[in-house]
Design brief:
alpha/beta; 6 helices; 14 strands; 19% helix; globular; binds zinc ion
Length: 247
């Protein structure tokens, strides 16, 4: 399976990248995490009619404002969108006039489903749990093609992120704040915390992403975060838009 980062910024797009969107090309499915404006690159990567599953973490705009780009896509297979309870309702209110093209006017079929916390077969196994954030935010762990990929964005360190990351082949974790900084009111994670989590969870690889462009304004800032994290967990990479790797 191939992992590609289409958007690695948090909050807003800048010269360092687009907002959150992560893509997995598996044997039978395309899997996408979040619909920040990095999703604009999706049609470059979807080259067959494998089903497309999009998992939304939460409704902060940096994770969903790429949904207004759905009208750009012509995928015959459509897109299945999954998110926490209320997703169906919220997206029916958002993807319509006067904000954007209405769901029923889109050139592709969109199915939206709500997920409760727990493990689901969608048809591959997906475990989702609430993380620690200013508004409810789901983390995901997916096992597919014999590998486990965990996606934890917009969160402080919590019991659920540890559980989701347990023995993950790849942990994709947010890095919303700088080394040595802690955010309590609007929880995010610094590189040392993410690295400590990866180590405690016995994950194999860690990708830091969702860099706040005000705090990590340059690629050098991301590299510094990577360096700090590597002191604790060697197998860490600071993700950039456009990087890809085989899992
Ligand atoms: Zn965010
Ligand atoms: Zn958020």
């Amino acid at each position: 399976m191939k992992l590609e980062f289409l958007g690695t910024n948090g909050w807003y797009s800048s010269e360092t990248g687009n907002t959150a969107c992560v893509f997995l090309d598996t044997e039978e499915y395309y899997i996408v995490f979040d619909a920040g404006d990095g999703i604009q690159k999706l049609d470059k990567h979807v080259t067959s009619e494998k089903p497309i599953y999009l998992f939304l973490s939460h409704f902060h705009l940096d994770h969903i404002y790429g949904l207004h780009l759905l009208s750009k896509f012509r995928f015959k297979q459509g897109i299945k969108i999954y998110g926490q309870k209320g997703t169906r309702n919220i997206l029916h209110r958002l993807i319509k006039h006067p904000f954007t093209v209405a769901l029923k006017e889109l050139p592709i079929t969109i199915e939206i489903k709500d997920l409760s916390e727990g493990t689901h077969q969608v048809p591959f196994p997906v475990t989702c749990k609430f993380l620690l954030h200013a508004d409810p935010c789901l983390g995901y762990s997916i096992t597919i093609d014999g590998k486990t990929v965990t996606y934890c964005t917009d969160t402080g360190i919590c019991e659920n992120s540890l559980e989701l990351a347990k023995n993950a082949d790849v942990l994709i974790h947010e890095c919303g704040t700088k080394p040595g900084f802690f955010l309590e009111k609007w929880p995010h994670t610094n590189p040392e915390e993410a690295a400590t989590l990866a180590k405690s969870a016995n994950a194999r690889r860690l990708f830091l992403f969702h860099f706040n462009p005000m705090i990590h304004a340059t690629i050098a800032d991301r590299k510094q975060a990577e360096e700090e994290a590597r002191r604790i967990f060697t197998n860490t990479v600071a993700a950039m838009d456009g990087i890809s790797t085989d899992i």
